[in-house]
Design brief:
The chain is an alpha+beta fold. Helices cover 27% and strands 22% of the residues. The protein contains 2 helices and 3 strands, in the order αββαβ. It is globular. The relative contact order is 0.20.
Length: 98
């Protein structure tokens, strides 16, 4: 005899994903990448010569290196503030002083 999985009625609301874009918020990857690059370029405290941004299906990937922890935080903050992203990953590292 096979057992049927139990189903439970849930009265709690599903958790909201802060990165989940609705249909009206969907944007092309190139547009998201361009806006992130513009935001990073406009920040006078950032040297983004070692920062690379990739967007695939709305998921943002930030890679490269920055000069200090503050710069890393600023890059990550700017890139998360763009609308229409479905996720965000950061592989930024802080360069060692020479």
């Amino acid at each position: 005899m096979r057992r049927q999985p139990k189903t439970y009625a849930s009265s709690t609301k599903p958790e909201k994903n802060p990165f989940k874009a609705s249909e009206s918020q969907w944007r092309p990857d190139a547009e998201i990448r361009a806006e992130i690059h513009r935001k990073l370029s406009e920040d006078p405290l950032l040297d983004i010569s070692g920062v690379f941004v990739t967007v695939n299906n709305g998921r943002v990937l930030i890679e490269g290196s920055v000069e200090n922890d503050e710069a890393k935080r600023r890059v990550e903050t700017h890139s998360r503030q763009v609308s229409g992203i479905s996720g965000h990953d950061s592989n930024l590292c802080v360069r060692r002083p020479r």
